[in-house]
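Record peptide-methionine (R)-S-oxide reductase, 145 aa.
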Amino acid sequence: MTYPVTKSDQQWRDELNDLEYAVLRHAATERPFTGDLLGETRTGTYHCKGCDSVLFDAATKFDAHCGWPSFFDPANNSAVVLKDDLTLGMTRTEVVCAACGSHLGHVFDDAPWTPTGQRYCMNSVSLTFRPDSGATGHVGADAHE
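=>
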């Protein structure tokens, strides 16, 4: 698949740190409960670390207790592309940025308490958070307890 934003491998290496490069360009996964955005609760938007496209709104973020930032819906229908992932001996659905093809994480349909039933389980290192001006509190869905 061809994406609107293209960069050479050297450009990706120059722009991303080692972990970001491994995750975004080679579908690695950051360790659970280590990402900087896991506990982020302010209102705002989450952008692709590779190309700055808007991917998720903070209003769709929830605590899934899985160790990675989770969202119940992308910012819009064209923000991400879903791909079959047959690695690790299982079938999963990979989520990639529709603009640059960077690996973001996976989506699972195991969150029935959210409006969509979906859990977009994203790597913190694949995202950049931009708070709304004056943002102080979270307006996203509460996780089930």
